[in-house]
Amino acid sequence: MPTSHPHSPASPTRPPDSPAPVTTRPLPGPRLPLAVQTMLFGSLRHRWLPWLRRRHGDVIALRIYPERSVVQLADLDHIRTVFGGSPELFHAGEGNVILKPAMGEHSVLLTDENVHKRARKLLMPAFNGAALRGYRGMIEELTEREVGRWPRGVAFSSHQRMQALTLEIILRVVFGVSEGPRLTELRTLLRRIVDVGPVDLLGWHNPGLQRFGPWRRYALTQRRVDALLYAEIADRRAAGDLTGRDDVLSRLLTVPPAEPGTDSAGLSDAELRDQLITLLLAGHETTATALAWAFHELARDPATLRAATRAADDGDEGYLEAVAKESMRLHPVISEVARKLTADVEIGGYRIPAGHTVMPSIAMVHHDPAHHADPLAFRPERFTGGGPAAGTWFPFGGGVRRCLGAGFSLLEASVVLRAVLSRYHLSPDRARPERPKARNITTVPARGARVVVSART
Ligand code: HEM
Question: N or C: which end of the chain has fewer CB within 10 A?
Answer without folding.
Answer: C
